Amino acid sequence: MRTQCNEKKYEFQGLNSRRVEGKFDGGVITSDGGGLLLREVEKQFGIIHRLAECFTDYRHESYIDHSVEELLAQRIYALALGYEDLNDHDELRNDPLFATVVGKSDPQGNDRIRKRDKGKPLAGSATLNRLELTPDNANSENRYKKIVADFDKINRLFVELFLQMHPEAPERIVLDIDATDDPLHGQQEGRFYHGYYGEYCYLPLYIFCGDFPLCASLHEADKHPGHLAIGELEPILMRIREVWQNVKIVLRGDSAFCTEDNMKWCEENGVDFILGLAKNERLKSEIADELEEAKSLHIETGKSARVFKDFTYKTLKSWSRERRIIGKAEHLAKGANPRFVVTSISSDEIDAKTLYEKEYCARGEMENRIKEQQLYLFADRTSTAFMRSNQLRLWFSTVAYVLINAFRHFALKCTELAKAQCHTIREKIFKIGALVKISARRIYLSLASGYPYEHILQKAYENLQGG
Asked: Which of 63, 121, 128, 405 would bridge 109 by S-S if both were Cys, CB 3.0 to 4.6 A apart?
């Protein structure tokens, strides 16, 4: 953030015979010096540019200070840099370095149309709020809200970005699907109480391939996530197969997605599945011997013990056919812990133990990616009154994640932060103190000399430049 110069002096506890004093007279100083690297990622992949193409702008050109792309860049870069609320932009709008990251040609705001906005290069919270709150039927006749998001285009954007960042077709991909709770503390549209989570919430549905998001769809909490899966998966599957015709696709999820409709859809569309299966008495009786064996092993060794069984199973009414089941008979210090997985993958391809421990349990990584968005990129800031604007906020968070994830994959490769989480990357790479000097010919950053991660920043810069 830019410092505000004033004459007040601060005297702190002295150090031996020395006085320790401070004053806000350092000039234009930012704490986000490394944020310029995000602009290099955007230059390479055009992530925000492609998002801007999903909006229609009905504003009159003579009244525009900020393009749609600049508004989106301001909102998304701010999330990536740790500024979660719209109110933060009432201060951020004054920061010339942040304006440079956004791509403003006038980073000091000298050319603003209105006199009251002079010296403020970026949009304030009210302008960004109108961007989020524009209804889907807005047009040029609306007084204030005139930038309309095309939800279908945005929904398709994530798979397009995924394909762009993977130019070579893999032999096999795994699509992880999961829903999570997004707690609500107001009277938002679509607010319902969820018995499992014990709170009023939304139920966003995510689909990831590795750590790349393909879907982030906001839903009411009275919807069963398993019944939403096909509607979100179908267009993703179709687009992937248009580009990668021979790729093998595996769907992976917990027991919420283990429905007859979902499994039948996978079987009819050539998609393998590995899904958790809720336990019942019939299933537990199938692995009774294995549970006893696991208990004996636990007593003998004093450690947790697992025994696996591979068998076929069909429900009494809901399933149309028998399917392969992996039963995990596990005994822990606290007692028996049976678990079950249903899959379309044959035992000739993957044995029971490997399928459960290496394939199914790997879905836990997706949960980490969801936590990254909610905890560090503020995907849970769904506090507007309407589902539409809250969905936009979820997408803005997801685009911020895509931006940092691209930085992680392509800039931080072969560094010690190649697998770091978003907040670690932010704190170690983007949050650099710098003195900003602006002249007619250049914008110059004097970065903090004591910055300890210069070697990583240098490697990231070289990777982004193709070095």
From this structure: 121
